[in-house]
Every structure is written in structure tokens, then in C-alpha cells.
Amino acid sequence: MPFPNENNQLEYKEQFNEKLKKEIAAFLNGQMTGYIYLGVNDKSRQLTHSFTPHEAHQIEETISHWLTSSIYYPSPVGLVTIHTNNSPLCISVIGGDYQPYSLDGKVYIRNNSESVKASAERVQKMLRQSSLGTYDKSESAQQALTFKYLDIMTDAAKLDFKQNALGFQLSNSQAYTNTAFLMSDQCDFSVKVAVFEGLTVDQFKDRKEVRGPIPKQIDEVLAFLKLNNQLSSVITGAGQRTDQQSYPTVAIREAVINAIAHRSYFSRAMVQIELFDDRLTIMSPGPLPGGLQPAAMLNGQSVPRNYNVLNCLFRLKYIENYGTGMRRIFNSYRGTGQKPSILAMEDFVKLTLPNLNYTQQFRVNNIELQPKTTIVTLQLNKITNYLATHPTITRIQVQELLNVKESSANKYLKILIDTQKIVKIGVTRGVKYQLNQ
Hints:
By secondary structure, the protein is α+β, with helices and mostly antiparallel strands.
């Protein structure tokens, strides 16, 4: 069985040699952990050489010498691990926080399965993002700041909100920091929300853009999404209907707060939220910080970005504990048969929440049926409820049961067959229908 194909995170080297320095440098400039496997042919993806313990020890010593010498800058010590007991021998490289990392003055990055020299534009972009965690601690370009929205919030909640203790000012002066700017009425970062008809961006139903202090952005976006989080009533054979919202409220709340609080404020891009019939997507500017991977995040690992902002939101009771929001989002879908998904790229992180009340459209006799929610129609339930106490039903009996024409009876039966609720038995005039066991 061959190994997987090489990609942005996976590299094979049949022999250990000096070329490995470039591969390490490229992975240091990535956003996720990269893995280099030695003794594996990159064409056949088969293990061709196993290193002896002595050879593995020599490789470990050589790489350690590379890492502690001056050929890499900044120092990558602590980011590279040689797994000598692994078969094949493996080197893991964590994308560092102080990018770009250079090798003898040259910067390399991964381009699919290759390590290539980074362009000047790419190097400048990495330089801008190298201090992702320091934006909120830096001095604000705007110093004429007001906090009317924040004051109203804290007064109403009777909160003792000490700005000086939360990083609103530089420690060595009275100048405002970007933490103060993000919490001020002058904050010009924004969130754009769009509601679309159907499954594509072809037709708008509604849209909203929110600016201002971070608490205001969160409040207004959540209020807008609440209006668009439809409640569906599912009618079953039981005496009471079941009500269900399209999206768990805890998932929406945590997703919106995460996107606004953890975004990269070095980017001027806006948080984009898009609501389709079948899904809600939330795209936040910037990569996951510190080379964090989605799987590690879902297992509780946390690398905070915008620490002062998070501290403010904690005091304002928007967040409970750092690093638990994403797990609460996934837990809110437990038992539904569906789950959210995360796409983490270099420039953005995109979270997709499935609509729990969405059903696929059906086309029957050139009539398109596109339910807005999973409201199980009374007609369909009458048929299945009848079959719960009778072995079979005919099309004529469906007409009589529902008081509908032949075409409508055929339409409802076709839907139940397509959704595998019932099966057809017999042919032509003797056709009957029974529940799918």
C-alpha cells in the first residue's frame, strides 16, 4: 500500500542530504505542521530504506546542528522534532509564529508538493502577519476615541469595567492601544451578512453590514441572524408537533463571537457571513494562529489571538472560557446526524453550519417541490400513519384518504418512494405500497 501523495504538509525523501534544509525552511513558513518522511521514494511512495538506530541518531545530531547554527533565522529551535522511533523516520515541522523564516537569507514556502522560493510580495505579507498576537497591544493610529456604546453596556449590566486594567492604554504612556480602538465607537472594522435565495449567491434576499465597537458588532449580527433562524414544526404521528430551529442558537452565538474576536486585525478584510437555504457560512480573515490545526482545536488546544480583546469580552460576559467555543459548536449538533465543517487556509478560516431543517428538492412530473424547511406535510404523514396500521395502500386509497386528484396522489407517493419511506410492490393495476422496513 503506497503512502499518500505529497502535498503542502507532506514530503518524502529517499535519502538524507543537505536538500532537507530547504524543506524544513518551507514548512517553518507554513500555517500547519508539516511532515517529512525519510526512506520513502517520492515517485512510487513506497518505503525503500529503513535507517538503523545509529543512522537515525546521526541524522538527529545533524539536524540539531542545523537548527542551532546561524543558517536559519529566526531560530527554529523547538519547532522541529525528529521522531527516530518512527517507521519510516519522520521529521515534523511546526509553522512558526515569527515568519518569515529564512535559510541562508532566502525564504522558502510550500507550493503543493514542492518547496519553492517565496516572492517578494509573499515575504512582505508574512512580515505583516508575523506579529498576529500583538495588534491589540500596539498603539492605535487613532487617539480621539469615545466609548459611548461600551459605557451604556457596562452601566446597564452594572459591570465594573476598568479600562486601564484591560490594556486600553500603553503601559509607558497614556496613548490608546488598538484594544481601545476595537472597543471604541470609532472602530471601522466591519461584518457583512448576506441572506441568499437557494443554494448559490445568484439572488439576494437580505443583507446587512455592521460597524462599530466589537460588542456592537456581535450584538447586531446575532440579532439579525436570530430573525433569519427559522423555526420549523415537524408533524409526526405523535400527539404533539416537534419544533426545531434551523441552526442551534449556541452554534450561531459561538461562531459569530469566534469569528469577530479571533480574526486577524492586520487584515482589512471583513468577516463575511452568508446564509443559504441549506447552510450558514462564516469566514474570518487570517489563518488559525500559531500553526494550530482544526483537529487540535476540536480537542481543546488553544492559541489565543487578540488576548486583550478576549479578556474584555470575558469581562463583558460574551465568552466563558478561552478555547471552548468551537467544541460547543460541534457538540450542539450531536445526535442530529449532521455536523459543522472547518476550512482553514492561509488567508481565512471558514466555518460551515448545516441547516437542520433543510431537505433536498424533488421534481415530480416536471413539478419542482422545494420545501423551505423540513416541515413534514400533513398529506405525507397521513399516508405513513395509515400504513402504520395497514399492511398496504393503493393509489386510489391515497386519493380517498387525502381527498386529492390522481396526479397529486402519484406525486405524494413518488416523494415517499424517493425518500425511501415506502416501497412499491406489484405491477400495473395491482400496484400497492407498503412501509419500507
